[in-house]
Amino acid sequence: MDAKRLTLFAGHYGSGKTNIALNWAYRLRDEGRAVTVADLDIVNPYFRTKDAEDDLARRGIGLIVSEYANSNVDLPALPSQIYSLVDDRSTYGVLDIGGDDRGALALGRWVPSIIAEDDYDMLFVVNKARPLTRTVEDTLEVYAEVEAACGLPFTGIVNNTNLGPETTAQTVLASMEYAESVARATGLPLKMTCVDKRLINDFAGQVDSLFPLDILELYYMQKEGM
User: Fold this and answer.
1) Which of 5, 102, 110, 216 has the fewest CB within 10 Å, making it most exposed?
2) By three-state DSSP, how is residue 100 classified?
3) Taking the CA atoms of the chain, what radius of gyration do you get in angstroms?
4) What Cα–Cα distance (Å) separates residue 225 from each residue in 15, 16, 157, 181, 201?
5) Mean pLDDT on 60-75
């Protein structure tokens, strides 16, 4: 998938969008681009981009996150630096959007500028293994709610179906019909299918547009506790 200047990842709570956002930022940085990650998720108290703060700093990736992230204060306050990220066209931005329609509302204030630049991907992350997105119909409900709340049209679908550390290649392969059905129903391309990079050789050309992920262990730890 070609990189737009801004890449936004949205999806239902537990879809794994934060882990994907971080991996996308790593890829852009490895390609030599200036990258900043912005955490707009004011809903999820579990795995946040701030959990990867040290790793991002080592890689030379900027991070914009609420000062209250990973504290016992959960305020819907977002840092003003996001305005700079949206406006500074010399930097690639990766934005982690809230996990439901309430979280997506936070994006609204930047939508006019994003649309005006017209160099963005707004990606809807789906995970068939999560309780509220196991069917195409339920997934489309979440899709419509998030898109309506933020006011920014989605441009593609990302399949991130997984069972945490129990995920196998078959887990992902079995989800492809579901992910492709979501893509057909929305009229959007299935831009990528995410897999643990340790499983990549098990696919042997069976899936197009695979995106290998480094799985942060904290992501699996938090997911098991949900």
Assistant:
1) 102
2) coil
3) 16
4) 15, 14, 27, 30, 29
5) 64
| pLDDT of residue 224 exceeding 60 | no
- Residue 98: which CATH number? 3.40.50.300
Query: Strands 156-159 and 120-126: what pairing?
Result: parallel
Amino acid identity of residue 87, one-letter, is D
Alpha-carbon torsion 40, 46, 47, 53, what sign? positive
* φ, ψ for residue 203, nearest 5 deg: -95, -30
Cα dist from 157 to 41, 92, 124, 194, 208, whole Å: 19, 20, 5, 11, 13
Q: Does residue 117 register a pLDDT over 60?
A: yes
Kindly state the average pLDDT of the residues 55-66. Answer: 91
Residue 114 lies in a domain: yes
Q: How much is the pLDDT for 69?
A: 43
Give the pLDDT band of residue 172 (cuts 50, 70, 90). very high
Question: Taking the model in full, what pTM does it have?
Answer: 0.89
200 lies in which domain range? 6-224
Say how far apart CA 29 and CA 134 lie, in whole Å.
34
Helix axes 136-150, 176-186, angle to 10 degrees: 50
How confident is the model at residue 220, as a pLDDT?
46
Place of tokens 């939508």: 111
